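Hi! If you just cloned this repository, the fastest way to understand the data is to look at a raw example. We've pasted two of them here, unedited. The first protein comes first, obviously.
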Amino acid sequence: MALVSKAAILIQLTRLRRKLRASEAAFVALTALAGLVAGLLTVGQQLIAHGIQRLFYGVSINRLSALGSIHHPWKLAALPIGGLLMVLLVRWLRRRRAPIDVVEANALHGGRIPFADNLVISAQTILSNGVGASVGLEAAYAQMGGGFASILGQWFALRRNDLRTLVGAGAGAAIGAAFGAPLTGAFYAFEIVIGTYSPAAVAPVMAAALAAASVTRLVGIDPYLIATTTGRGFSIYEYLAYAGLGLVCAAAGIAIMRLVTFVEQMVQGWKSIAPWRPIAGGLLLIPLALISPQTLSAGHGALHLDLLMHPALAFLAIVLVLKIAASVISLSFGFRGGLFFASLFLGSLLGQLFAGLVNLMDLGIELDPNDAALVGMAALSVSVVGGPMTLAILMLETTHDFALMGVVLTATLVSGTITRELFGYSFSTWRLHIRGSAIRSPRDIGWMFDLTARSVMRRDWVAIPLDMTVAEFRQLVPLGSTKKSVLTDGTGHYRGIVPTASAFRPDLDTHDGVASIAILTDTTLTPNTGIDAVLRMFDRESVDELAVVDDDGHVLGIVTEKYARRRYFEGIEMSQREIFGEV
């Protein structure tokens, strides 16, 4: 009876999986479920992180960075204590490879993320933010939301593109839940995690974002709102001024990303403190927090406080420098987290500074500091995080100010364009690039890594011995039988390629060895050479065939340029068809 019940359950699961693969409505329902869970996971992570802050600092939610001063400096011992906990966690995980985040998973692994990786990234981010390091929780939100979606999709055996869409929907839903902004979450999924807009993904992604935002409302989490003055317009001169702010934010964003990498590489070179970097980082953060508590945590409270109080330009400049230093130290010394909200806070400071300086210059325009702060928030975040529409929609959903949308879009488009032109990466893809990854965006390139020289090579090649003469070659390989032959020595090692036409040149002495006309004697492919590297080698060598050899130099096969390019373009076409839901 038990065996019958188990078999029946397996049959039903198989049918359900087939239905999900075939039915768009069923897939939308699945993404809504993933979004609902992503919203709950976001709320849970918020409570844990703020619980740690309450434990160490005695502050309520989002109030750590809004403290006027640290009345009990001994509480800042939480920073090195948190660093010690990070050291212990890293040592416990020493034998594990680097965890896969949602962007890397969608770009390289078809959306597959081991669940343990989600727990590692979330735990490290929550701990870092909870003890006051200058990082945001958004990395943990997106990781857990996208990670749960990945596990759900793998369990239902979804196709590659459906799994990528589900992971993007889960990550975007988590971000939407964090801000109470479902449209922001949807655009985050499209621009930051999936890497493209597609008609087939609109309904699933929106379903997940709406489900996540709804569940956070049900549990009593208020949406993230910033009050502005509505019912006014902007002149062409203000548009030009805010375009200039976008340019400034692009320069600042590039500088911050490069500075993080420079300091991180420098610190990694200090072998004596390498295992204890988070503790040293925590100690370095203490004097910054004593000067201004606004350097602590992501900066939610400080952002609202500065928008309300309109502090002096000198104060804003000092906090800007300190916050950049705190973020650089936090990330370079081993704390984990994102720069999403930190870049929002930094952008608000930069925007207020920009407005103050423009107003002092008496150029005939008067920029509102709050407007400039909001535009700066979006523009700097686009430079660091990417996704111009994501940030523009975030400003719209948090302010409900349609008039502001125009100048925000102007600044974000300028910032994003300049950053792509001069730098080419977002912060997440830049850090992956530093680790040696080939990705520049979340666009799916994982299929190219499955397409290697081994998978496109021919095994019906003609081998000729190294000591063969031209006359013997002409007898064995007549014109028209094959274009090229592979030259090997007595032990089967590769020694070059002999073009058939070259061996029949009338000026050749038939007693000469064919080794004298062999080409590409030192140019070969390995079995694991990726298709992009294969095509680049064809372009560089201007040949139409290359040999594939193993580590010992034995010939495994031949790759022809025509077939390699055909397989490459077939892969691109299949990827495009998947994006638009045509398969």
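Ok, and the second one:
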Amino acid sequence: MLEALKQQHQQPAVRDRVIVFDKDKRTAEILTVEAQNEERVMAGEKSIPLSDLELFLSKQGRVFVVNAPTDYIQATENLARVEKNTIIRQIAQYKKPHEERSGGLNWQTILLIGGLILVAIIAAAK
């Protein structure tokens, strides 16, 4: 039992990573994936569309690779900032849905009842 715990501490956890190769600067950046959905991967300060990534497998987990010019990499950073700002704005502007008042009549209910009464009067007059 103690030996199994030691092995778990020695073995790194399986983590997805993104490797960003900058063609223009001839640099590489290795980032840990923070979030992923069906459209994009968030890693570091970048939001990269899945369609632009190439997937590889390693013993430590999945590795997404993108080989792009500097302009593209800067665009992924801008996209990440926009997404974070949008989320923050949505949180700040969140309003609780109006709670239904029990026992009270709203105008739609009154209009519906009025319409039913009008139909009943017309039907009774014939």
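That's it. A detail worth noticing about the second one: The beta strands are 17-22, 27-36, 40-43, 46-49, 54-58, 61-68.
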